[in-house]
């Protein structure tokens, strides 16, 4: 019996050692895979940064060359317009620098910094990029001049937020409020560090100005063409980090839509300023390209977008809010309200067919959701007055939660992301009001409980 027990013990020990070795190998493989992924991501990030910097320098150099050429050829109108665009961009860079790093300084020192950095304003985007790492030499050098390298106008680091964190106890308010601030901060941080303001102030206006100059003076200049292509590449490169999507296909689709819209704008401007002779070769060629583009690329997408817009933006949220709502589920006139809103949605959808455009649909979504929210809010108040309260305490946050759940459950991604900014903006207003009333309800007991729960989670 003792030999048998010893044999069983040895087998179990070998089995346990074998399982431990397998788990160790799996952990090593996971660590190795994560390192490979991290190395690959770092390589792509560096490649993108270097490409963006090279395109920015090339774009600025070509625009400066064209500005000098406008002056030498006595094209003073285009010279002053190009100079105004360039100076506007440089002033914008200086203002962003002051807002980012000089918020704690007094007015006189801000004016001195503004005057001092104005001649070097074209280098400010690279300062944003290099100072993004708080431990870099440039960031430490800027800290010697009392610049706020840890300051951001949208969110403060943990050292500054410690006292405010101690006053906030409610978990949902804390998490969602900080999440919204982080989202806003990350978005504007990408704009600052990756020079994305450049395509708004320089790239697109300069491209339009150069196209107009080529058409008016009937001169095909190589520098103009290179500048236009570099500007389009600059915009496309910067827009790579801004599209939203739950998957890679939606991400690529949003990016291609933006780039093709930009090229389409330049094409339409060329057609308008060129004004080709009717029934001429250029006119017939452009008309043929335009009509083929409509039949192949525009009309099928319009039909698809209208169907998806009608199903996901109007029918789905209206049905969910007015029929499956917890606080007006027992109202007898919920179905008539649903039918009325369905008719209104159909009318707006027909208007979208006639005046199709992304901005129109976006504005329509905002007004439609705002109207649904206030109407459902009135229904909830009416339901409370009549004594038809549910078991759980109803709050003003229920409709917001339904809209946020629609952003996750709706079938179309682009249309959901279009209204996300509006919903988050409304959420910040609501949470700020909750924060003011929450401060008066905080006690030492709740602070101790919050501290214990945070330690357990950590």
Contiguous helical run count: 16
Quaternary organisation of the protein chains = single chain
Give the end-to-end Cα distance, rounded to a whole number of Å: 49 Å
pLDDT < 50 runs, ≥5 residues? 1-5, 152-173, 179-197, 325-333, 353-360, 382-397, 406-416, 418-423, 453-458
N-to-C SSE string, H for helix and E for strand: HHHHHHHHHHHHHHHH
Helix content: over 70%
Radius of gyration: 29 Å
Number of strands: 0
Q: How would you sum up the global shape?
A: extended
Average pLDDT rating: 63
Describe the overall structure:
By secondary structure, the chain is mostly helical. It has helices at 2-72, 76-101, 107-117, 124-130, 137-143, 158-167, 171-193, 197-217, 222-238, 248-274, 281-322, 334-354, 358-385, 397-409, 413-438, 444-457. The longest helix is centred in the N-terminal third of the chain and has 71 residues, at 2-72. The N terminus and C terminus are likely disordered.
Short description:
The chain is mainly α and 458 residues long. The chain has helices spanning 2-72, 76-101, 107-117, 124-130, 137-143, 158-167, 171-193, 197-217, 222-238, 248-274, 281-322, 334-354, 358-385, 397-409, 413-438, 444-457.
């Amino acid at each position: 019996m003792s030999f048998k027990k010893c044999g069983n013990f040895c087998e179990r020990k070998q089995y346990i050692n074998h399982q431990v070795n397998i788990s160790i190998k799996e952990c090593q493989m996971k660590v190795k895979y994560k390192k490979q992924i991290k190395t690959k991501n770092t390589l792509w990030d560096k490649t993108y940064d270097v490409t963006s910097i090279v395109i920015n320098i090339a774009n600025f150099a070509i625009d400066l060359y064209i500005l000098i050429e406008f002056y030498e050829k006595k094209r003073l109108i285009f010279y002053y317009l190009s100079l105004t665009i360039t100076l506007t961009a440089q002033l914008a860079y200086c203002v962003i620098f002051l807002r980012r790093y000089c918020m704690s300084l007094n007015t006189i020192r801000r004016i001195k910094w503004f005057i001092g950095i104005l001649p070097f304003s074209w280098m400010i985007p690279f300062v944003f990029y290099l100072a993004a790492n708080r431990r870099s030499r440039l960031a430490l050098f800027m800290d010697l001049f009392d610049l706020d390298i840890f300051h951001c106008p949208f969110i403060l680091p943990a050292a500054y937020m410690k006292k405010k964190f101690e006053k906030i106890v409610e978990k949902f308010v804390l998490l969602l409020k900080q999440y919204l601030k982080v989202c806003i901060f990350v978005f504007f941080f990408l704009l600052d560090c990756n020079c994305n303001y450049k395509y708004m102030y320089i790239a697109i206006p300069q491209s339009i100005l150069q196209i107009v100059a080529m058409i008016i003076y009937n001169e095909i200049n190589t520098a103009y063409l290179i500048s236009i292509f570099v500007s389009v590449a600059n915009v496309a490169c910067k827009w790579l980090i801004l599209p939203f999507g739950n998957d890679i296909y939606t991400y690529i689709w949003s990016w291609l839509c933006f780039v093709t819209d930009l090229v389409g704008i330049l094409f339409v401007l060329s057609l308008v300023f060129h004004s080709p002779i009717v029934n001429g070769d250029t006119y017939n060629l452009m008309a043929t390209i335009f009509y083929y583009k409509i039949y192949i690329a525009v009309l099928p997408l319009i039909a698809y977008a209208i169907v998806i817009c009608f199903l996901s933006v109007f029918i789905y949220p209206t049905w969910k809010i007015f029929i499956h709502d917890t606080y007006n589920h027992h109202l007898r006139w919920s179905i008539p309200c649903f039918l009325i809103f369905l008719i209104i949605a159909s009318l707006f959808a027909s208007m979208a067919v006639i005046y199709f455009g992304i901005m129109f649909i976006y504005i329509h979504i905002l007004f439609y959701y705002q109207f649904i929210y206030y109407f459902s809010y009135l229904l909830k108040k009416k339901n409370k007055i009549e004594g038809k309260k549910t078991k759980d305490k109803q709050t003003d946050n229920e409709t917001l939660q339904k809209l946020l759940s629609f952003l996750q459950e709706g079938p179309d991604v682009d249309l959901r992301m279009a209204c996300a900014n509006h919903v988050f903006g409304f959420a910040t207003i609501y949470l700020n009001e909750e924060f003011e009333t929450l401060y008066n309800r905080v006690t030492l007991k709740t602070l101790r409980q919050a501290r214990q729960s945070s330690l357990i989670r950590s």
